[in-house]
Amino acid sequence: MSILLAWYLDLKSPSDAQFGTARPQECAKADGTSGTNAWERAKSPELRSYCDKLASATSQLVGTGAVSSEVLTLADEAAKARPEKAAPYVLRGRALARLGRHAEALAAFEEAKKRDERALEEPRALYTYAHGLARAGRHGEALPAYRALLPRASVLDLQERSAAYAETGLLLLALGPTGIDDALAVLRQARREAHEALQVLGVLALGLALDRAGEHEQARALLAERGSKEPKKLEIALSDARVKEALAAGPDPGELHALLGALYEDADSARAVEAYKAYLEKSPKKPWEAHAKKRIEALAGKRGPAKPSATAKPK
């Protein structure tokens, strides 16, 4: 795949005209798409070099595979050539996030915004920025970013789109009853859009949200359809690295236990009770305390095999 073709595939979408693109406007002068003639372009070789570095870095960010530190080198060289421009910092932020260096990625995005307040409107950059804010505990800033992203989420690759819906749903659930309607809408979309382990997370979160909204029978039917009669198979999905990353973006460390409580209600009520109790213990603000206590009370009289408390403290 050529660098220019990779750049096109990564950046071009039906929404480019409406929402802008990560492809910097200044590079239109370098490739002639702005209408400049060959003589004008020839007078700016340093601009062509700058744009080539950005294109090369962008080509390495196509897809969801591992990236090398070469992307950072290219972005840094572009930033040195044009320190007033936002594009190199956007690419640096995306690359750092892919390398797991989330705090540094967030700092790079903030530098991009200082140079251009619209720098992060491109969906791939916006998702990475929203996730970085959430990972940093800045959930009040992350949620508006996710809300702005979701109408454009179709541009994202499947894995990023899956994570975006799941993470937004979890953030909305953490608001408590005031966020339940929006959470249900987003998690229903997560059920349709997500795949593999992130779809399991989306379905479990939707089932939990339905139960919290008072739709107990609908919640049980949904989870039974997904396979809650054999919950261990679904629990394995919650240990997937992508699911852990999505949960890490949420503000409530107790939410995993609430998900397990909803999962085990039909197959093992004793284990479900332990999980709901763990939610009450681990959740800092306990936005769904009344619901957890109600489920514990409802399940306490049911017979179920006693299980060790490992469910309450999953790895």
Care to describe what's here?
With 315 residues, the chain is mainly alpha-helical. It has 19 helices and no strands. Helix 11 (158-173) runs parallel beside helix 13 and helix 12 (180-193) runs antiparallel to helix 13 (196-212).
Biggest sheet statistics: none
What level of helicity do the residues show? 55-70%
- Our Rg estimate from Cα atoms comes to 23 Å
Overall pLDDT score = 85
Report the portion of residues in β strands: under 5%
Q: Count up the helices.
A: 19
Overall 3D form: elongated
Which regions contain 5 or more consecutive residues with pLDDT less than 50?
1-21, 33-43, 306-315
Protein structure class: mainly alpha
Query: Secondary-structure element sequence?
Result: HHHHHHHHHHHHHHHHHHH
Distance between the termini: 41 Å
Number of strands: 0
Tell me the layout of helices and strands:
Blueprint (H helix, E strand, L loop, with lengths): L2 H9 L4 H4 L8 H4 L6 H5 L2 H15 L10 H12 L5 H12 L3 H14 L7 H13 L3 H11 L8 H16 L6 H14 L2 H17 L3 H11 L4 H7 L3 H8 L6 H10 L4 H14 L6 H12 L15
Helix pairs in contact: 1-5, 5-6, 6-7, 7-8, 7-9, 8-9, 9-10, 10-11, 11-12, 11-13, 11-16, 12-13, 13-14, 13-17, 17-18, 18-19
